[in-house]
Amino acid sequence: MATPTHDAQALHPTGDTIAAIASPPGRAARAIVRLSGPATFDVLDDLLTEPIDRARKIQRVRMPMAAGGCALPMLAMCTPGPRSYTGEDAAELLVAGGAVVPRLVLDRLLGHHAVRAADAGEFTARAYFAGRLSLDEAEGVASVIAADNAEQLRAAGDLVSGRFGQRVRAWADELTTLLALVEAGIDFTDQEDVVAIAPADLRARLVSMRNAIEQHAGAPAMGESDAARVVLAGETNAGKSTLFNALLGRRRAVASAERGSTRDAIAEAWSLAPIDPSPVELVDAPGFVAGTAEPAAVGAIRSADVVLHCADGAHQELPVATDATVIRVRTKADLPHAGSGALAVCALDGSGLDRLRSAVAETLRSR
């Protein structure tokens, strides 16, 4: 397994101990609450009725829910670092499932002065920084979580297992070998009896590798799903990224006064519930410059079901042909505008966002 060459401590200091519910929400017989970091076992010693036995991997324990309250029975699965998933001292508490008990146990852990809530993906990030996972494998974990069907799960499994990386490295090695043989043939052109590789053999090996790559690429992409695609498009500095963050309810894209801060199309799952429970993918596309769209913006718009054509003034013509339904959105509604006839929104104070969500849901239903 490849070990990262960067300074893990500088990029992600792991001097603290983190906790989170590690099982999916919903009804189940059991749920998992995960704890990782240098203070893991000390925290359990403080919170459990008896000190943890660090020599035993699985043990029955009890945790009082409050001072003088009942003690909740659970299983504790302890793994000292560096053998754990994160490479740190870690523990998983197996508790009764449901919505209430796991949350109570997590709150009890977070109430300890040495514990904080884990950020999204932080356990896997720590595993990567500790050299327990390669970058491909870490991305595979995220793909497994996001998989919508069996094909996506299979492809994500290839990443997690390292099979995909091995396959790509084999292709790269074959290309490097063929390139070296071609260059050797060029170097020895003045020697008629030296043939590094015959043209027919070169062609056969290139065709074989091309077929293998095309066969793999022909499988459904891991990011594909049945989600409708809603793309934010418009001139640079039209407020698309700010609107993108506001619709998601969190900061995902960089919103900057500097033109061209969005270079690639950024896609995120977007919920229209309770208006519409259907899955939706929201995409922030690079802005147009002088009416010209970047390739990433062209691809995003042409694959869209709905395009939110954003402008902070009068709307220009959309420079990309598309079969998507186009909704004109007037951004920065808190400022004076020359444009009219568009749905006015303000991402800063939230005005118009509910109307925009309803308009998108209605458009998707009609399509």
Could you provide a short overview of the structure?
This protein is α/β, with parallel strands linked by helices and 367 residues long.
What does this structure look like?
The protein has helices spanning 8-11, 40-47, 101-110, 122-129, 135-146, 150-161, 163-187, 199-217, 240-248, 295-302, 353-366, and strands at 17-21, 30-36, 58-64, 71-79, 90-96, 115-117, 228-234, 266-272, 276-284, 306-311, 325-330, 343-344. With 367 residues, it is an alpha/beta fold. It contains eleven helices and twelve strands. Strand 8 (266-272) and strand 9 form a beta hairpin. The strands form two sheets. A six-stranded mixed β-sheet has the order 3-4-5-2-1-6, with helices on one face. It has a six-stranded mixed β-sheet with strand order 8-9-7-10-11-12, sandwiched between helices. Helix content is 35%, strand content 20%.
Q: What is the total tally of β strands?
A: 12
Pattern of helices and strands:
HEEHEEEHEHHHHHEHEEHEEEH
> Beta fraction of the residues?
15-25%
Task: Give the CA-CA distance, first to last residue.
Answer: 47 Å
**Radius of gyration over C-alpha positions, nearest whole angstrom:** 27 Å
Mean pLDDT level: 82
Structural class: alpha/beta
Contiguous runs where pLDDT drops below 50 for at least 5 residues: 1-13, 219-224
Helix content bin: 25-40%
Helix count equals 11
Oligomer: single chain
The coarse overall form would be flat
Largest pleated sheet: 6 strands, mixed
Largest sheet: spatial strand order = 3-4-5-2-1-6
